[in-house]
Amino acid sequence: MDECQLPLIDLSGLRNQDEGERLACVAAIARASSEWGFFQVVNHEISNELLVEMRREQVKLFETPFERKASCKLLNNSYRWGTPTATCPRQFSWKVMEEFAAAMSKLARLLAGVLAENLGHRRGGFEDSCDASTCFLRLNRYPACPVSADIFGLVPHTDSDFLTILYQDQVGGLQLMKDSKWVAVKPNEDALIVNIGDLLQAWSNDVYKSVEHKVMPNRKGERYSIAYFLCPSYDSFIGSCREPSIYRKFTFGEYRRQVQEDVKKLGHKVGLSPFLL
User: Which residues lie closer than 8 Å to 255 by C-beta, 6 or more apart?
Assistant: First the structure.
């Protein structure tokens, strides 16, 4: 399989006093969002120390025996988690997770604002609709798999949010659809990955692309990643930023229900097509 280098964007350009340099950075983010639906960012102002500490806590979580996590109702009874000695939530550094989530939220809102600005809209619009109770972190572990060529770590899908920020290790496994074929994303230890979600594609009237992607496990080593999803409140309307609109207006809650119904009925997510005008 072909391996690709995602567009790499230095976010220090957004803080440049030279307006031309700042606008060039905005244009690079918008171009990558339109042509790839994915890009990488460096100089994002999330410290390496925080990233390393968050990964340490993630590994502790996944190494906890399942029975112990279930008995102490860790993470709201979610089955998606995992430290050999932890017996209650107090033994995990929730402060690190809260700090990490806050940093990812700040970055996600910055990028969403830049993409709105590029289409002539005010940068604070997404902050008005995005709700801390519906934005979330997902901690992923993909165990080593000897038959990895035949097994999905995560099935092909698009994300149902505005945008996603991914912090991954160097194992690799993320693949995306580019020019009608799957390409493998080469890990970059210095960068975070950003991808456009369905809601931003709908809001932008298909200017920005929510691209299908998947994860394939590694034969020899396990893979860790953490994704932050920027989501609006469930009653927020997702309208188009320009007319004529390609999609009818819908709420985030309506969209989630449609996705759940499609998965239950068809076994897979359909996405935005039911909302086309």
Answer: 160, 198, 199, 238, 275
Burial degree of 117 (CB within 10 A; 0-12, 13-18, 19+) = middle
State how far the alpha carbon of 153 is from the alpha carbons of 160, 174, 222, in Å: 19, 9, 11
Provide long-range contacts, Cβ within 8 A and 24+ apart, for 217-220. 217/142, 217/143, 217/144, 217/145, 217/148, 217/151, 217/152, 217/153, 217/173, 218/142, 218/144, 218/145, 218/148, 218/171, 218/172, 218/173, 219/144, 219/145, 219/146, 219/148, 220/144
Give DSSP secondary structure letters for 81-130: ---TT--SGGGS-HHHHHHHHHHHHHHHHHHHHHHHHHTT--TTHHHHHB
Nearest-angstrom CA–CA distance, 144 and 217: 6
CA distances from 263 to 35, 200, 258, 271 (A): 28, 21, 9, 10
Using the Cα atoms of residue 60, residue 61, residue 65 and residue 68 in order, give the sign of their dihedral.
Answer: positive
pLDDT per residue over 30-73, tens digit each?
999 999 999 999 999 999 999 999 999 999 888 888 777 667 66
For residue 84, cis peptide bond before it (omega within 30 degrees of 0): no
For the chain, give every domain's residue range.
Answer: 3-237
- Does 2.60.120.330 match the CATH number of domain 3-237? yes
Pairwise CA distance, residues 252 & 161, whole Å? 9
**What digits encode the pLDDT tens for the residues 179-200?**
999 999 999 999 999 999 999 9
